[in-house]
Amino acid sequence: xxxxxxxxxxxxxxxxxxxGSALTVGVPTDVIDTDxxxxxxxxxxxxxxxxxxxxxxxxxxxxxxxxxxxxxxSAGVMGSTLAAAFAxxxxxxxxxxxxxxxxxGALGVWAxxxxxxxxxxxxxxxxxxxxRWRRRTCTAQACDAAAALPDNEAQVAQQAVAPPN
Length: 165
Prior knowledge:
Elements: H1 11-26, H2 47-63, H3 74-88, H4 95-134, H5 151-161
């Protein structure tokens, strides 16, 4: 299958999704400087690492092979990516925030909350990667419980279900 390595990882899909994530989060927020958008406040130092982590984690999530056609978790990843976009966006450029809070509220209320939203979105993306990794042998019908456990617990689980000699 195109985009897969010998181990079953989806590197082609991961590269496309990571690039899409970078463009979706970075361009409209003007963290990635383009002529398409203008930012009214300067990019803050922490917005670059949040963008990089968002791109890496969405790419990792997409690269992890799944047993069967399992799309679980994709809505959470998209929501976390959207949260990252709100977190790194210019607080006074966001029409929704300015409409709800006003200009002073966007700077006085929303801007201080953005780093926390950024942290939550990165944590949620990291959790999605961990969950997808643990479910990589699962299908929509069943999950190999032993594969989701660490190695020593998996051996104990295998011994518990093995018939006696």
